[in-house]
Amino acid sequence: LLTPRFALPVALLCASALAAVTVAARQSAPVAASRQNPALIEDLVYANRILANQGVVDGFGHVSVRDDKNPSHFLMSSSMAPALVTTKDILEYDLEGAPIDAAGRAVYLERFIHAAIYRARPDVKAIVHSHSPAVIPFGVTGTILRPVFHMGAFLGEGAPIFEIRDAVSGPTDMLISDNKLGDALAHALGGHAVILLRGHGSTAVGNSIQQVVFRAFYTEVNAKLQAEAMAVGKVNFLTPEEAAKASKNLDTLAARPWELWKAQIGKIK
Ligand code: MN
After folding, report:
1. For residue 232, with 0-12 CB atoms within 10 Å meaning exposed, 13-18 middle and 19 or more buried, which class applies?
2. What's the pLDDT band for 136 if we cut at 50, 70, 90?
3. How close is the Cα of 90 to the center of ligand 1, in Å?
4. How remote is the CA of residue 100 from the centroid of ligand 1, in Å?
5. CA distances (Å), 14 to each of 6, 19, 75, 190, in order?
6. Structural contact between residues 63 and 126, judged by C-beta atoms closer than 8 angstroms
7. For a tag on the chain, would you pick the N or C end, based on fewer CB atoms within 10 A?
8. Would you please indicate which residues are annotated as catalytic (active-site) residues?
9. What is the pLDDT of residues 88-99, one digit of tens each?
10. Is the separation of the CB atoms in 42 and 109 below 8 Å?
């Protein structure tokens, strides 16, 4: 703690240092990286680490956030396993999915999932794409993923399924590897919170990093529970009305698991 004797000189020192920085910033050309919000980047790194820790992503999968300083850009790591992402790995992309300055680093093949959804959905601020295992059966059987409990309420009347065979003629490698496929996926998502990709995985959207991590995690949990419930007997799902009410409630609770999951990770680089 500063004693009053030291507080004034330190304050003056800080003020002059700030002035020097301001002058330096005015003299140099604007740099893209300097506009990014360090708190947002830190949350994005935590999101990568939490999703890996919770088994939503493994070596694959990615999470992005719309740039709060420039809504026509988004932030996402370079191509790497989410568990290994640090603040230095975060790149900025435009809404066509092009990196602003990758500096030689590889970028995710499926970055068009993110670009296309941000283009189509101004309300979406963060996106998770994963291949989390319990969700896969619901993409390939015609059994709709629906909320079996209140924590899955954001699934509403059920998650839509993206059929890549309807988007292009002829066989594909199953990946969303260009903007045309991205647009088709965003169209199929519509106003939903989660979409399943047949034979591939799922994508969750949210109005914040906290909300989308919550949704990606509980999509996997709901899928596991729904499969178990269906094996036990006839399932009594949340009605769409119950889901809508419960979903509103969840939006006020996303911060609680987030703080727990962050604490389990500890300090990040
Ligand atoms: Mn994928």
Report:
1. exposed
2. very high
3. 19
4. 22
5. 12, 9, 31, 50
6. yes
7. N
8. 110
9. 999 999 999 999
10. no
